[in-house]
Amino acid sequence: MTTTSDIGAPAPGPAPESVPAATRGDHRGSWIPTWGMITTRFMELRRRRGLMIGLIAVNIGIPVIFLGVRLISHAADPKSYGPAGGYDIFTSLVLGFMYILGFIVAAVVGCTAGSIDLTEGMFRHLVITGRSRLALYFARIPAGLAIVIAIVAVGYTIVCVVCVFAAPTQLNYDGVSVPQGLSRPALDSWAASHADEVICDFSFNGGPGLNGPPPSVPCGNGQTSGPPPGATITTKGGGTITVPAHVSQAQVRAFAIAVANHDYADYSVRFLVPPMSVMVDVGLWIALEATIGFIVGLGLASLMGQRTVPIILLVVLELILTPIFSRAVISHLVNLERGLVGVAMLHIEPGSLPTPFSGGGPVGGGGGGSGLGRSGLIPESTLTASLVIVGWILFWTALGAWRMRTRDA
Amino acid sequence: MSTTTLANSPPVASGGTSYAVETHGLTKRFGENIAVNDVELLVPRGTAFGYLGPNGAGKTTLIRVLLGLTHADSGTMSLLGHDVPRHRDVALARVGAIVDEPRFHGHLTGRQNLQILAAAREAAAKSRIEPALERVGILHRADDKVSTYSMGMRQRLGVAACLLGDPQLLILDEPMNGLDPAGMLEMRDMIKSLVAEGRSVMLSSHLLDEVERTCDAVAIVDRGRVIRQGPISQLLAGSSFEVQVECSDPDRAGHLLDGTAFGAHVQVGPDGLAISLPEKTQRDAIAEINRLLVEGGISVYRLQHIQASLEQWFLSVTSRLGTSE
User: Which of A6, A14, A28, A314 could form a disulfide with A107 if both were Cys (CB 3.0 to 4.6 A apart)?
Assistant: First the structure.
């Protein structure tokens, strides 16, 4: 049996005061974080020197170095090195670099924000303040996003500025300098007056007016286009065609116009500089990607109570699972594939960009008969993609908040 | 487990809201292990209260339950008269606590760590950062990174963090850990000064000497269960004590006392007799011993009453529990 003795003296003190006014007014039980909680959380993340250096190096440093080297190279030897800016550089940097690494870096920040209080022993101090655990969790979201989005925005702005101001002066299409922004009739007209260049350099593969062999025109260095006049060629059907000995200038122009028509769709999305609307759209798209990376990292790290494993999982998601599942149709798992946030993000990519993970190929690559849709991605409607993205953000936020609320401190 | 009752005291008073900490039937299990076992605890306001127990006795777990760091499996509790966890936010608004080793963000300065904690409290907490740092004596290092702090300095920073909420109740888990003797003295003085300001301090410790010097009342916990609690003076008053006697014939004196009804345990040593008297023995017994020796023709040169220390008492209680199992 356990027996406890009365406390006796010293006598109990006075009854407790009512809740102090200062405490009543601070809404300590509310799930909404205070401004001070957000700013101090921002300060805590910002002062992580290693994290900030990594974040800045990836999002700002590497694009700056890449563009800086191109600027210097082009200035020193313009004939050997192309311009530092322009649309092609923009798409290469954005899709091959900022989109993917932006997600990973944002995920690292999210995982740090989601786990570091726990691993460094501050979580306990914070819980003891009586502040709602949900408020403690939600304070991390604006604080972390303020850092991630700001740094991504700075890096992206630098890329945009260089791509606009250091763009080539003429549009290079298939190795031919072509005026930018021509309408279809204007491009036809331009093709008629540059028929030899169009026939020699523009790509084409059949189509209206392009069924026969191209007319033989001089392409420089002693080369000509198409088979020589008078030659006999075998068609796919097994028949033979004899190339006319003489082709009129009108026939050459007509063929060039047909080639220009064939290539117009591709030409029309080539720009000297990225248009403002594209830059805005792409900027928002990258910001959304970074936001998702941060939110998922925050929730996952909060759930697991550590940083390393969630980071590894998110890197695997971004670099391995998303490229595979965005292009490989697995019949029984296709809805699961559609549920990947990376796949959904590719579906809402601004339309004029090439698809990431496609090797830089332009839109319209197609999946042939493999069940893939436009751009070679598994088919998914924009509405579904949008719902998947919203779902991921809400799900991981809720999961992280739930774990924060129920975790032993 | 069977324990004996040392004090003939009435049951624990209950129901009042005038206790800083009040628990009834509080239990916390980790699987088969019962870390907090049906704990009835009353910590009066305005006192320094020691929560004593050997390692693994469940001291820290009880504190974690009280502070809402982990949930209780059963029982009720209140802090400063507010039920927790129901009114946890209100209760903890005026509670400061250190649990386990105080840890902070090492890449931030002491001041910045306190800014984070102050932001989670009421607006006035921010203005208490400077005084709190000054009070715990680390104002001069406030702008150094915590990673450069010694264990003792982190302990002080932990106390500063407690003070941000202008607490009515401080719960300190092993606050003397990592402190050098001077630091321990300062901590002891600080706790006393906090109590003098009308605050309640509950500290858990296994440093019995420090608790005896610092606290007014204690509870002894063993294997998750509170086995004794009360003011130190009252607990010790009911404990066994020793009388040392220097006399002309120690051997005969020992023989003489063995045959009495005191229940005394007599040891004869080079310095004389060491007579251990059982708990609840009245002080009149000392005079009776003197009378017996003198009437027996033994000259008494010195007779000294030695009160058991908290440590001796604690060991006697816990060892008795151990043997009773």
Answer: A314
ipTM score for this prediction: 0.77
- Return the structure tokens found at B130: 């400077």
**Chain B residue with the nearest C-alpha to that of A44:** B108
Considering only CA atoms, give the Rg of chain B. Answer: 24
- Of residues B306 and A52, more confidently modeled: A52
Q: Is A18 on the interface with B (CB under 8 A)?
A: no
Secondary structure letter of residue B260 according to DSSP = S
Other Cβ atoms closer than 10 A to A164: 18
pLDDT at site A335: 85
User: Shortest CA distance to A376 belongs to which of A407, A348, A404, A354?
Assistant: A354
The mean predicted confidence, pLDDT, of chain B is 84
Query: What 3-state class would DSSP assign to A163?
Result: helix
CA neighbor of B285 nearest in space, from B303, B267, B312: B303
Determine whether the interchain pair A127/B200 forms a contact, defined as Cβ–Cβ distance below 8 Å: no
- For residue range B168-192, list pLDDT tens digits in order: 999 999 888 878 888 888 888 989 9
Token pair recorded at residue A300 = 């996952």
Nearest CA of chain A to the CA of B17: how many Å? 6
Q: Could you give the CA distance from residue B224 to residue B110 in angstroms, rounded to a whole number?
A: 35
Asked if B101's CB is within 8 angstroms of A26's CB, the reply is: no
Write down the pLDDT at residue B108. 96
Instruction: Tell the burial category of A398 from Cβ atoms under 10 Å away from its Cβ (0-12, 13-18, 19+).
Output: exposed
Closest Cβ opposite residue B13 in set A6, A14, A131: A6
Task: Give the residue from B141, B102, B163, B64 showing the smallest Cα distance to A120.
Answer: B102
CB contact under 8 A, A15 and B81: yes
d(CA A301, CA A404): 10
pLDDT tier at B7 (50, 70, 90 boundaries)? very low
Q: Which residues of chain A have pLDDT under 70?
A: 1-25, 206-209, 211, 235-238, 351-375
pLDDT tens string B13-24 = 333 467 999 999
Query: Chain B within 8 Å of A124 (Cβ-Cβ)?
Result: yes
Using a CB-CB cut-off of 8 Å, the residues of chain A touching B225 are 2
Return the axis-axis angle of helices B250-258 and B284-295, rounded to nearest 10°. Answer: 120
* Residues within 8 A of B (CB atoms), A 41-100 only: 41, 43-44, 47-49
Q: Judge residue A158's burial from the number of C-beta atoms within 10 Å of its C-beta, 0-12 exposed, 13-18 middle, 19 or more buried.
A: middle
Task: Give the pairing of strands A218-220 and A223-224.
Answer: antiparallel
Minimum Cα–Cα distance from B124: chain A residue = A22
Of A22, A126, A132, the CB nearest to B89: A132
Kindly report, residue by residue over B245-261, the tens digit of the pLDDT: 898 888 888 888 877 76
- DSSP letter at A320 equals I
How many CA atoms lie less than 13 Å away from A241 in the CB half-sphere? Answer: 15
Q: CB–CB of A125/B110 below 8 Å?
A: no
d(CA B266, CA B258): 7
**What is the reported pLDDT for A396?**
97
DSSP B141: G
Residue of B192, B188, B199 lying closest to B162 (CA atoms):
B199
Q: Which residues in B lie closer than 8 A to residue A142 (C-beta atoms)?
A: none
Q: Which residues contact B55 (CB under 8 A, 6 or more apart)?
A: B206
Positive or negative CA dihedral for B203, B208, B210, B216? positive
pLDDT class for B73, splitting at 50, 70, 90? Answer: very high
Between CA B188 and CA B181 the distance in angstroms is 10
User: Which single residue is written with the structure tokens 């106390």?
Assistant: B159
Q: Please tell me the distance in Å from A310's CA to the nearest CA on chain B.
A: 21
Distance CA A49, CA A360 (A): 34
Contact A13 B80 (CB under 8 A): no
